[in-house]
Amino acid sequence: MRRFLTALSAVLLLAACSGKTTFVEQLPDIYPDYIGVTIPAGIAPMNFNIPQEYDQVFVKVTGSGGGELKARGKWADFPRRKWDALTKRNVGGTLTFTVLGRKGGEWTQWRDFIMYVSDAPLTDYGVTYRKIAPGYTTYSHIGLYQRDLHSFREDPIIESTLTPGQCMNCHTANATDPAQYLFHLRGKNGGTYIQKDGHGEWVNTKTEETIGNIAYSYWHPDGRWLVASINPVRQSFWVSDHQPIEVFDVASDLVVMDLDDHSLVVDPRLTTEDFLESSPSFTPDGKMIYFCKAKAYPVPRQVDSIRYDLMRVPFDASTGLLGEIQTVIPASQEGHSISFPRPSYDGRWLMYNQADFSVFPIDRKEADLWLMDLQTGRTRPIDEVNSPLSESFHNWSSDSRWFLFSSRRDDGWYVQIYFASIDSDGHCTKPFVLPQKNPRKYYHNTIYSFNVPDFTKSKVDFDTRHVYRDVFSGQRVQTSVKP
Amino acid sequence: MDKLFRISVTALFGAAIFAFWMWLYPQALSYHEQYQLFLFTWDYLAQRLSVSGGLADWLSEFLVQFFFLRWSGALVLAIVAICLQLAVWHASRSVRPDGSRFLYALSFVPSLLILIYMGNTEVLVSFPVALTLSVALCPLFARAGWHTLWLIPLAWWLLGPVALVPVLFAVLLGRRPLHWALLIYTSIVVYALYRLFLSQYTPRDVLFGINYGRLREMLPALQVIIPVVTLLCIFACAVPVRLRQMALAEGALLFLLAAGTLLGVKASYDRDTYEMIAYDDLIRHGKYKEVIERAEHYQPHSPISSCSVNFCLFMEGQLSRRLTEFYQCGTGGLVLPSIRDSFSDLTSAEIFFMMGMPNTALQYYFDCMESIQNCRLSGRFLSRMADCNLINGWWGSADKYLDILSKSLFYRKDALRRKKMVGSDQAVSADPVYAYVRAVRFKEDFISSYEALDLMMALLYNQDNNNFMAGEYYSVWQRLKKKEGGAQ
After folding, report:
1. What is the C-alpha to C-alpha distance for residues B269 and B283, in angstroms, rounded to an integer?
2. C-alpha distance from residue B363 to each of A351, B346, B384 (Å)
3. Is the pLDDT of residue A3 over 60?
4. Which of A216, B243, B385, B468 lies 20 to 30 angstroms, CA to CA, from B42?
5. Which residues of B398-411 are buried (b: 16+ CB within 10 A; e: fewer)?
6. 3-class DSSP state for residue A275?
7. Whole-angstrom Cα distance, residue B328 to residue B310?
8. pLDDT digits (tens, 9 = 90+) for A437-453
């Protein structure tokens, strides 16, 4: 019976696609560009659209290791379970896509294309990100979300509807583990929410001795320490059609926070007025902090003179003290600026952004992703994933075989999340955008950018029940400066 | 006779409401319309239905899109007012079918209260829509029996907290312990729906309505009073009253209602606020002369008003000559600095656009839209943002905005026209407005600064002497600056 039904459906599909079919040698113009990308087995269906003038698409996917899948409709919409089974059956192999499009009653068949199924599994649950209208000085709806990478399910962690008038940013987990995470609320009742081992607290991280609240944060592997930069951020606006916005820090310092007693380690070498320090991160062994440092110039007048070098400083987790500061890449000397150094969790690579100036690569068209081999110290731009437009915030999966990054490559303005894998030699694969049920409809209609994306090993557990009361009560655990 | 009387009074009432919005406060229509963008898509409907009160909100936005045209907006509000009044009367009939003619006048009270309440510019039409539908449900709830058990969550989800009106109606009409238990049941249902589906909203929103007002923190007393009064009116209308001098009593009651409404409107419709909204409405439609005429009679003393009147003076070629005849508040009243709300900067944004600063106009329009307190899109602002993106050749964003606009009713045609320009510099340059802005805009790139705005205007004028606006604004800026200096 089952065979009969399969045969019948095949006959019906063939009949449906019958009529005049024209074969063309070109690859299909699909959105998003998934041609030749490498995906992990079990990723959500890589649905795609063909040009809108085609009213029907028929797709047959054939696995090199066996298995077949068909989709037909206004766009290629693959059933999730069958897609999941097909990708898992073809780990390390390829999926061949045969695509036909119907226009004016006639079918066109394009050249088949291939998608590679990586042998590196994606073990993480999904990704977290903030959605915000990419813009100027105000925002309306804003929220932190988590998305299951194995399906299209998106859940809010916290949205501005719950905390009216408050901005929120930087959901930061400890090496993708949401057992330890934090995020910041900004505004009148601002604070940092820190959740550790099932216990959450709202903390005021501003002290009399520091210039503001902590912003870009990174967890120490043992969960006791956070390294963070304090960045009073401002924006200015260009007048020509080159790019609209420039974001910069009017000052910035670097501190380490001890979560055991809510105290800040303030090192005078990293809190000077003459220099700006930003975007720190711990190495996976917790013994080193990478960060960026630049000479301060008057802003916004000389914003294009601010160029950050890549620095590092040893860290003693037993005392919280910092060692001798070292320059790793003196990028400013060559007219470049480095931001967001992120060591892979296996300690093999360091990924960072490089632009002409600034520490906010999202607003620099020329910003690219670079990779440093931490064994040899060699660096290179990751040409496999870079585009002519901005590549910015990035993070590693928990096993460091995959990374994600933000990019404006799609329409030049709205930021999307891309994924790529990396092998043991540092070769990266062609990236793919976060899959959506109907990608064109989703990405073309959304008025939000995806900010500060990160992998999350498991689902983030955040109880919204008391948030409103806690936020607006103003009760905060006050941090102090470690003597 | 009785029926004819009722029809006549209702028709008269409808005409009065129509006249109120058509001629007294038409600017309110434009104000509401510009803070939403109704889209004919299933996603849009699904988005609205995903929260409590969503159907009322969706219907309200559907209706408010017709505020784009003054007459259709006034007509819509008149119809809503009549529907509410008739729903109240109809509900009262289900209490006692033989109600007296005298008390028919009381059925107008909720609609009149709504009229007063809408003097608050941030009250959304979804509130009267939800109330009307809730009152219309009263007779159904009264005879629904056990069906009330599923009607309550459904009504509460679709209409929001005013769905309590038919529940209370059923309780008061039934007056049995079982009916009172409905209130406990409703509380449990609301709590369950809140915990299950509305965990990203505050308990306050859930109790008092997510979509009844543009400002979510807002809870004016009238929002609670009006449903209570509506319920009272339903029962009061049903009270059998027989008076000897019926006609006199009717006249007196109607007079009292009219006088009360007049007083309420006077207290609720802030003159300065509505005057500035009127300026914005007229500027939006290019009626600069009318702004000047209004300002000749009365002009609010605020930077927004000054900015709007000055702009209209310029557009009519009178800025330098008549500057001192109108209220001025220094250079800040010529062009406003960036202010984080959805209204103040609208005229300034228009000035920047016309003067050849599309990026600053884009910034102002974007911020205005993002400042809409209930996080809605604005057809008007999105349209201008698309203009700025087309001028800059930022095709991706322009295409996105025009696509969104093309799913609306009143912005569709123009959006489709402009969509043809996406990707074609030639097509953009063939449009006279775009071509002008492209021609007079800055040739060099630098970071803009409000503090140096006069220098930027001078630069624009020196760059292209055809940019008469930059030249005149620069010279007026200097005059006002001198005056400010002199005053100090």
Report:
1. 21
2. 33, 11, 11
3. no
4. B385
5. bbbbbbbbbbbebb
6. strand
7. 9
8. 999 999 999 999 999 99
A191's CB contacts (< 8 A; 6+ apart) are A184, A185, A202, A203, A204, A205, A471, A476
Residue B452: both structure tokens together: 């140096």
pTM for this structure?
A: 0.93
The residue written with tokens 């009267």 in the block is B128
Task: Please indicate whether, in this complex, the C-beta atoms of A135 and B447 are within 8 angstroms of each other.
Answer: no
Confidence of residue B488 (pLDDT cuts 50, 70, 90): very low
Interface test with A, best of B364, B434, B447, B459 (most A CBs within 10 A): B447
Q: Which residues of A touch B338 (CB under 8 A)?
A: 137
With beta carbons under 8 A apart, name residues in chain A contacting B205. Answer: 161
Mean pLDDT of A433-440: 97
Q: Are B337 and B453 in contact (CB under 8 A)?
A: no
DSSP code, position B371: T
User: A51: which 2 tokens?
Assistant: 């040009």
- Residue A15: the pLDDT is 53
A162 touches chain B (CB under 8 A): yes
- Give me the phi and psi of A350, to 5 degrees please: -130, 120
Q: Using CA coordinates, name the residue in chain A closest to B389.
A: A241
Q: According to the model, what pLDDT value does residue A221 have?
A: 96
Question: Collapsing DSSP states into helix, strand and coil, what is residue A370?
Answer: strand
* Phi, psi (deg, nearest 5) at residue B33: -65, -35
Chain B residues in contact with A238 by the CB 8 A cut-off are 359, 445-448
CA-nearest of B263, B360, B369 to A140 is B369
A156, A237, A244: residue with CB nearest B200: A156
Q: Are strands A449-456 and A477-478 parallel, antiparallel or unpaired?
A: unpaired
B343 C-beta neighbours (distance < 10 Å), count: 19
Quote the CA–CA distance of B383 and B390 in Å, as a whole number: 11
Write out pLDDT tens, residues B339-388: 889 999 999 999 999 999 999 999 999 999 999 989 999 999 999 999 99
Residues of chain A with Cβ-Cβ distance to B446 below 8 Å are 238-239
Which tokens sit at A223? 């969960």
